[in-house]
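Side project, low priority. Logging it here so it doesn't get lost.
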Amino acid sequence: MTSGTLTAPWKKWEIGIGSLCLLFFLSGVLVALNPSWRTSLRGHFSKPQRKLLATASGDLMGDGHPVKVLKLQTPEGVQVEIYNSPEGAGSSLIDRIRLQDRHNGFFDFQGEASQLAILDVNGDGLYEIIAPTFDERLNAHLNIFRYNPEVRRFEAFQPASK
C-alpha cells in the first residue's frame, strides 16, 4: 500500500509533463502549417531589418549638387531614401518614399538589369528617380519620382505621353 501512495503523485506529474509536451508539439505543428501565424510569430522574435538593395547618385534637385539615393527593403516593404551628400560632411535625409508594392523589382536599362536609376525621363534636363517594384501578383510597376522645389519633396511623376 505504501508503494502505491508513493507512485501516485509521480504518475500525475508524468501525465502533466506528457500533456504539456503534447500541447507544445501540437502548437508547433499548427504554427508551422499556418503561414500567417508563422510570420507573426517570427516577427515577435526577430528584429526589424533594413536591407540595402541598390544605390544611385546624381543631381536630382537641379542645383548642381549630387544627392545619394538608396533603395531599401524594410519589414513594411520597399522604400527609397534620398540623402544630400556634401563634400567632407555627414549626409542628412532629404526625403523618404514608401513604395506601394512590397517586392523589389528591376528593369532593363542599356542592356543591364537595374533596380534603381536616375534618368531624365522626359528630356527636360531634370533627372528623375526610377525605382521598379512588383506587386503581390508579381505585376511590374515602374515608380518615377521627381523633386518639387515648391514643397521641397519628391513626388510621383507621370511623364506626358507623346
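Brief comment: Residues 93 and 152 are 12 Å apart (CA to CA).
Revisit when time allows.
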